[in-house]
Structure formats: C-alpha cells, structure tokens
Amino acid sequence: MTFPLGPFPTSERLRFRLPSPNDAVFYQTLMSEPDYKRFIHDYGIDSPEDAATYIKSKSLVRFAAQGVGLWLVELKETGEPIGVCGLVVRKELKYPDLGFAFLSGHRGKGYGREAGQAVLDFSAGELNLRTLCAITHPDNDRSANLLLKLGFEPSGQRHLEEIGSTANYYVWKLRYVEAGLG
Hints:
The protein is an alpha+beta fold.
C-alpha cells in the first residue's frame, strides 16, 4: 500500500497525521467510549491487537485507496492523540463525508470545531473540493450542532447500507465572497 505523504490539514493547536498500528491503545480507548459505540459504531475493539488490525485493514486501506481518510488528531503542544477527523469516501454518498470523533475528556474545548474547520479548509484549498457531506446518528445533537457551526446545512436523512442504519444528512458548499459584496 502507498499512502499520501502530505500535506495534511493543520490548525493553531492541532496536528493531523496518518494513523499507525502504534496508535492501537489510543484507538481502543476512543472506540470503546460509550458515545462512540452509540453514535458511530461498535466495531468490537476489545484489545490493542483488535485496534491495530482495524487501523491496518480499515483506516490505512482508505488512505491508500482514496488518498483521504480519518487522520489522527493530536495536540501540537504535547503530541497527545485526542481524536480523529477527516474525510470518508462512501459509495452510497455523492460527496466525501466529514467524519470526526474525540475522546470525551477533550470535548467542549473547541477541538472538534478547530479540526473540522481545518479539514474544510484543506478540502477546499488542497483537494479543490467544493461540496462535502456529513452524516450523524439522529440522536447525536452535539455532532449536529458542530456541523451547523461549520456551515453544513441539514438535507434530510439517508439510509446507508454501509452503516446499517438511517442517518441525518448534511451538506457543505464552498461559498465565495466577492470583494465588496460581503
């Protein structure tokens, strides 16, 4: 497999990088949190070995196949991993899907919004994407509110076979502001 070597999104406080099997303990912790299992999916990650397999067989495969995926997000200051954020290409959706998940101890500090905005900026600037989508569990008000703050607009619901359920669907379109027309 070959992986994109960069550039990757970046922000004031956060660094984005490809996940590695060395991140297995972090992935196990993140994917074992109750909100992750409830609102995203329960992948049955019960050990660091399970997490390393997930990273190799799912996360890295996406990057190799599509050049994008969910980057590991870490604090620039400490290098501590706090979540994942990026783009997921799904056959059932017309546009790349902005996805994110953060450890519960790092929520409410603006990291989700900062990471999401960094991916939007990267998508428009580096990838020349003009439209993205996002999906959320219908009961996930926190993620829905974040998407609205990032400029996504609700666009009904979609049933996705890939996730085996119906999700709320949002669309983001790059908007140009002409000088003097603001």
